[in-house]
Amino acid sequence: MSDHLPITPEQIAEQAIGAADAGAAIIHFHARNPIDGRPTPDPDVYAPAIDKVRRESDVVINITTSGGPNATVEDRIAAALRFKPELASLNMGSLSPYGRQRIVGKFDKWKHAWERELFLAAPSRVYPNTEEIITRTIQEIGGAGTRFECECYDVGHLYNVAYFADIGLLKPPFIIQTVFGFSGGIGVDADNMTHMRNIADRLFGSEYRWSVLAPGKHQLRLCTMGATMGSNVRVGMEDSLYLERGRLAESNAEQVARNTRYS
Q: Where are the beta strands (DSSP E) in 123-181?
């Protein structure tokens, strides 16, 4: 959907370093097959980008533990196990991508066949993050010293963080990424942001670091609101391809720079 999206390891590394230079403290990594852009969990594809960023920047590296609909737990944790980053994302509950197939009708042409097929399969898909999956992810990746960015797409996910803290698997200070506006999760209403923060305050007191992310046209508005309430913010082309209405972002650094000004 954008020719500016980084695909190859070299492109991803360059954009990561650019985002760090623009003010980003943490870089969240995914990898893509450099031939057709399909997301991949293969650590060998991650390696050139991770190595380059580590050589040329002191930014904190955060590797995803998410995955496509057919990814196994082994697939999802492989890159973080190999590279032992400072942070890894940890989704705190299962989701279904309600309505995502509707985007197919907005495009006449697709660059790769897998893209259209992925959207059309959305009504039958579940992104699983069961207790067993989360437990294994924490035990295997956390054992190497990596801390977790707990991605909470709904209020119940905050309570899941508290549950894993109660049984001793997650340790404070917690990094809580509240996610608004993704299908199957909490919506983008301003009241929801206040509610999520109030619940996090009640559950974790002063023992957490708060961050906010939102997709597409909601990114700048909600991130600015979060920043005024004391949150960190996440921006980038994983969540929004645009810099402003009708104008595609040409890099992740552009979004970082813009949100730094506004936030």
A: 147-152, 174-179
User: Model pTM?
Assistant: 0.95
Q: pLDDT tens across 200-252, in order?
A: 999 999 999 999 999 999 999 999 999 999 999 999 999 999 999 999 999 99
User: For residue 114, what are the contacts with CB-CB under 8 A and spacing of at least 6?
Assistant: 36, 38
Beta bridge mates, 247: 244
Residue 166: how many other CB atoms lie within 10 Å: 9
59: its two tokens: 């930014």
User: Do 236 and 19 form a contact (C-beta atoms < 8 A)?
Assistant: yes
DSSP state of 236: S
Question: Cα–Cα distance between 148 and 91 in angstroms, integer?
Answer: 10
Nearest 10 degrees: Cα torsion 218, 147, 76, 212: -10
